[in-house]
Amino acid sequence: MGPKFALLAELEEILSEIFCARVLAFSSGMLANLGAIPLLASGQLTRGRRPVVVFDQSARISLGQHKRVVADETLVETIVHNDIGVLERLCREHPVVAYVCDGVYAVGGHSPIKELRQLQERYGLFVYIDDAHGISIFGRQGEGFARSQFPQMLGERTIIAASLAKGFGASGGVLMLGAADHEALFRRYWPPYAFSMAPNLAAIGAALGSCKIHRSPELGQRQRRLAQRIDVFDHRVATAEQGNSLPIRTITIGSETNAIAIARGLLDCGFYTAVTFSPALGRGTAGIRVCITAQHEVHDIERLCDSILQNIAQTTGKPYPLR
Length: 323
What we know:
Elements: H1 3-19, E1 22-26, H2 29-41, E2 52-56, H3 61-64, H4 67-71, E3 76-79, H5 84-93, E4 97-102, H6 113-123, E5 126-130, E6 158-163, E7 173-177, H7 180-189, H8 191-194, H9 201-214, H10 217-234, E8 248-254, H11 256-268, E9 274-276, E10 286-291, H12 298-316
Parallel strand pairs: 2-3, 2-4, 4-5, 5-6
Antiparallel strand pairs: 1-7, 6-7, 8-10, 9-10
Helix pairs in contact: 1-9, 5-6, 10-12, 11-12
């Protein structure tokens, strides 16, 4: 085994301990999903029975873009964001159902993990969650928003994909698996493995460095610092995500033109924000997406809030609703 693969094996072993799962590492989260979603559609992960694959309408693009490939293998459904009622109906109507969603959504909010687990217990629902935005900010070892809400062992009906490039602070992506036979299938048939698309040495080294932080008291310090910054923002600017402990906030503006103008004004003030449009949000509900990090100082957050309120008032001619 060459030095790169020895280090990769070491990384996967440490990540398996942190996430309490069988972990495979890849050069990006996109590649993780690229190999996993078609394999899920084939029925190889559901004991040879092809599932009806249900996508959440707001699932990230690295999930939703695989619908055409999945449709070559099995029936595909797309449901309204977090519509547990429709998902349960599909579970009643079909013998095997797999649900594909985010853990923490890019425009704010999160998947209803408790309700999804109930559907797993009641109907055997297979859950595939991409928790790219939830890693590191939750859990004693930073196992993430989704993983921290599942039992110690994931089991054979849950896969969690995650990024090592966002909150984790390195580069690459991972899959958390709960079954040994699933791990064997991925290592044998997964295109990213077959075509040498494992993380490069620099990415492996960065991830190993981040693992040291995740296994030390520093992680808890960073998590508490982030929570404080989120609280400062929530006390100044009202959003639908207020109080949910997640670092993503979306400020609904309405007009796409106004949203672009406000984002431009914030950039002129030194703050980069993202404008969100349809289909991430409904038509006429464009918004400004803010991502808060532990690296921001309190005065940075306060100045950002002042700039948001000022630019909204200047652009729309009316004040933004305060908390």
